[in-house]
Amino acid sequence: MSIDVLFVDDDQKILDGLRRTLRPLRYEWNIRFASSGDAGLRLLEEAPADIVVADMRMPGMNGTEFLDAVARRWPATARLALSGDTDRDAVSCSTAVTHQFLSKPCDIEMLRNSVARTIRFRRRIDDPDLVALIGSLDNIPCLPEIYVALTDEINSPHCSIAGVGRIVEQDMGMTAKLLQLVNSSYFGLPNKVTSASTAAAFLGTETLKALVLGLHLFDNTGTTSDCHIDLSATWARSLAVAGAASYAARIAGMDEPGISAAYSAGLLHEMGAVILLANLGDCAAQPTTPAEALGLTTIQHTDVAAYLLSLWGLPENLVDAVAFHAQPAKAGRSARLNVLTCAHIGAALAMSEAALLPIELDTNYLEQVGACELAGAVSEFLETQA
After folding, report:
1. Is the residue at 139 inside a domain?
2. Considering the domain boundaries, does residue 136 fall inside one?
3. Residue 145 forms beta bridges with which residues?
4. CA–CA distance, 212 with 359 (Å, rounded to integer)
5. φ and ψ of 52, to 5 deg
6. What's the CA dihedral at 259, 260, 263, 269 to 10 degrees?
7. Could you report the per-residue pLDDT of 276-288, keeping only the tens digit for each?
């Protein structure tokens, strides 16, 4: 099945160059071009696109305005921004309507990979309304008490990046959003960032203050929109899983980026369930647990999280660990001990009684990757912490 991609740029030379460069992809992509935001909207009215790639600096309707119109009218469409603008604040102001930022001139292989990764998990979700819901999200609920702690730290005359990082690392919504922003190719970092603390340090206190206080980057409600189900236990379990996964990575001898990725994967492993509960929870039945509110046994919440994280351009090893932490053998990757292995062990062993959905250790998978002793060591560690 071909992917429908629309490019919008007021520079005709750039569009002509894209036509030539992307010609080898004509059998994979159905590609259209528009020389203005208004022209792009007219093309979308004729036929929606899977992905739009828009230049940010266009006369008349600029890129942010165009992507905002796309977000409102076609929320299922993935929105990528293309810009040579070096102003970080301009990029930050567009985070609410932009899934990924690409820098100009854009490397075609990077563009191709961004499109492929975005589409990969979207195709695992059958419900078009759910795809649209995920596409419309610009943040994930965070716990009010963590949000208060963050704003207090940012407003403090003694604010430190280390302090901000420690707070952000406790919350799945904050972590996911910062990693989305920092991992955009716009910032041109040589390696993908998997640590919220590293992301915070890269952005700096002034940018973070503008994002949190001025642009309201984070959703501080901490509850579902209608049901007001308290998800504090889910956050507590996520922190426990993050700690267990990072411990597994450390004693397995992984480097610091691998340990950070394992921690973040553990923190985000039930993010899909939080998204669904925050947007689709049904109060009528007066459920006794968050899982009952949504019937999570029938919904693949891991695919929801994986699609949003891939849509936001997070590192592939982190996305895979979130997507397959419950069934690691289905990842389809080479059988070796990696971040996914650590996330699986952490999710199966840490605070298992509080899991929205129970996860059992896949002993066949662990034997295949040589991680049975690692799982045993993590289990013993958790017993000492009880």
Report:
1. no
2. no
3. none
4. 35
5. -115, 140
6. -120
7. 877 765 543 444 4
Both 257 and 208 in a single domain? no
In what side-by-side order are the strands of the sheet with 3-8? 29-34, 3-8, 51-55, 78-83, 100-103
**Residue 323: phi, psi to the nearest 5?**
-65, -40
**What is the domain range of residue 152?**
144-214
**Angle between helical axes of 256-268 and 316-324 (0-180°, round to 10):** 40
DSSP state of 324: H
Helices (H), 281-371: 290-294, 301-311, 316-324, 339-349, 363-369
- In tens, the pLDDT along 311-326 reads 998 999 999 999 999 9
Q: What's the whole-model pTM score?
A: 0.86
- The pair of structure tokens assigned to 346 is 């952490």
100-103 and 51-55 beta bridge pairing: unpaired
Claim to verify: residue 337 and residue 242 sit in the same structural domain: yes
Number of domains present in the structure of the chain = 3
In a domain, 224, yes or no: no
Q: Do 196 and 236 have their domain in common? A: no
The conformation of residue 214, written as its DSSP 8-state character, comes to: I
Residue-wise pLDDT for 241-268, tens only, equals 999 999 999 999 999 999 999 999 999 9
